[in-house]
Amino acid sequence: MELVGRTVVITGASSGVGRATAVELSRRACNVVLAGRREAALAQTAAMCESATLVCATDVTIEEDVARLTERALRPVAEVPADAPLSARAAGKVAGSLNQLAGTFS
Fold first, then answer.
1. Which residue, 24, 26, 47, 81, shows the most beta carbons closer than 10 Å to its own?
2. Is the pLDDT reported for residue 92 higher than 80?
3. How far is it, in rounded angstroms, from Cα 17 to Cα 10?
4. What's the number of domains the chain is made of?
5. What domain range includes position 23?
6. What DSSP line would sit under the chain, residue for residue?
7. Nearest 5 degrees, angle CA 20-CA 30-CA 12?
8. How far is Cα 98 from Cα 16, in angstroms, rounded to an integer?
9. Domain at 44, CATH number
10. What is the Cα–Cα distance from 61 to 90, expressed in whole angstroms?
11. Contacts for 16 with CB less than 8 Å, ≥ 6 apart
């Protein structure tokens, strides 16, 4: 599967396996959406990434947080608010499974 230019949402991206996954996928030219509860730690992960990143503080146990993450990750780059905590503009859209996830909260 070709990864270049794909957008990937990574939960738990503030440390450990999530952080390592984000850094590796960015090295492979994926755009990464970094999700986790600790925004400062997510910003540190974003600084380690080589590709476009979007930081979205998210607690996956809170339905509204997951809905916000889904909505922001699916937006085209031009629609992401200028004041969103971004280290760079995430490119593209997230497909398939994230849409399905959003549907589970409807």
1. 26
2. no
3. 10
4. 1
5. 7-103
6. ---TT-EEEEETTTSHHHHHHHHHHHHTT-EEEEEES-HHHHHHHHHH-SS-EEEEE--TTSHHHHHHHHHHHHS-GGGS-TTS-BSSPPPS---THHHHHHHTT-
7. 35
8. 23
9. 3.40.50.720
10. 24
11. none
| Residue 1 within a domain | no
Instruction: Let me know if 15 is exposed, middle or buried by CB neighbors in 10 A (0-12, 13-18, 19+).
Output: middle
104 has a pLDDT exceeding 70: no
Tell me whether residue 20 is in a domain. yes
- Quick check: 90 and 74 in contact, CB under 8 A? no
**Residues 74, 9, 59: CA angle, nearest 5 degrees:** 95
- Residue bearing the bigger pLDDT, 37 or 82: 37
Q: Is residue 2 part of a domain?
A: no
Sheet bearing 7-11, strands edge to edge:
7-11, 31-36, 53-57
Please measure the distance between the N-terminal and C-terminal CA atoms of the chain and give it in whole angstroms: 31
